[in-house]
Amino acid sequence: MKIWVDIIFTATLVFAGSLHADENHPSGAFSEEELGKVHFPVSCTPVAQQQFDQAIAMLHSFWYDEAEKSFRQITVTDPTCAMGYWGIAMSLYRQLWATPPTVEELHKGRGALKEAEKLTIKTDREKAYLEAAQALYQGDEKTGYRARKLAYLSAMEQVWRHHSDDREATVFYALALISTASPQDKTYVNQKKALSLLQKVLEKEPHHPGVIHYIIHSSDYPELANLGLTAAKTYAQLAPAVPHALHMPSHIFIRLGHWQDAAQSNRAAYHAAKDYARKNAMAGTWDQQFHAMDYMMYAYLQTGQTEKAREILQELHTIKKAQPENTTTAYAFAAMPARYAIERGKWSEAAELAASPADFPWDQFGWCEAITHFARGLGAARSGQLPIARDSLLRLEALRDADRAANKAYTADQIEIQRLAIAAWIAHAEGKAEEALKLMRASAELEDSTEKDNVTPGAIIPARELLGKLLLELQQPAEALKELEASLIRTPNRRNGIGRAAQAAKLAGDQQKARSYNEQLQALAVPDN
Length: 529
Prior knowledge:
disordered N terminus, 2 strands, mainly alpha, globular
């Protein structure tokens, strides 16, 4: 454990050094030691080629704003470089983000591709990349997000097949596979294919940031997480100048329950994001800072570092403006107060939660608003405030129905998981044990049938863990232990899951398991200083 903490610390120091170095580079150029090593041959001038490789490294690490700036500079350096416009379009379409591109982003992306069409496309390979990018911008603004991604996947598969010696085609095709993976596919067909492709490139290009990054994304599932651990231990050192690269290893650490590593990773990303926002004079708090804060709070709560979690929440309450106002910021605004109350079992506190900031456009982010109503409803049901719980239940129903009507099946299911859970605990409060268990089991089964989105480190509380808690309250400890152990397989090392498993084992008469879980719980504890 200490070894990896030292690695993260070293990466943070390297990042700090890279910031200092950047101040001495008026051109904004970075070294391979700061971004990783990528070579994407294009038929542009030598100077533009050098800039292109750097911009591609940024793109592969999802440093979209900087990548777009760099690609635009390429079109100035070499006005005949059509692939510079391809890069602009690719920087405006964030394939793994929960939020689809805005109308403005679609307009800008199409505009960039139209500029490329005015130029001579010098190779069939470049023509194929440009045509694939066109698939992301097909149709009008009403064309669905998934439809665009599936069209791009098909186009990139053809690029990959017709240019089998092009390792960049392999890497971009792997990303397209990941971005179109179904959350209901428990065989992980796309992810496993992407991993296979990426491992082959890794053998040739061990310092490629996209390969390492996408291996982590391909492995970000309970059943696959161990396959991404080596990449997680590498990425922050490979691209220390990029805030997202400092954060990304925590996706694997959290899947495996490595809480201190996850906290350190996000602490580094948090500071990097703040510094980037300051250097770019952002009017609000950058979404990547929110992302790191949510992940960091989750990790601190699992180790009992509630004071550090409270400090994060206090900072959140001081933030009045997010940049941009998207799913990432909406999710963090809703999730962090909910986590802080629910993980600590402060039910009355949870029952008082309200969507905040009040002037945030919550009507655009129903899935995120639902988190507040889930925490509020659960807290109210647990603290005997049933009118409040029923109000939250009604709001969850409305939000679910709105997403269903908008063909947002994934988020509608996520809201339904929460709605079923609140209905279960209301039924429990009303003395309807059989109905409560039926509803809570339905919630757990629905959650097991899908996967978490990249925007979140995990559910506010896993539905199956909550089912175990309900069974404990209904004095069925053996059944509770079974459910809690099943939950811990998918969300290992969760503090409350382990604590409740220890309680269930003791009540069920399994003293050996009770001792084992209590030892695990003690091992999680980290001094809160």
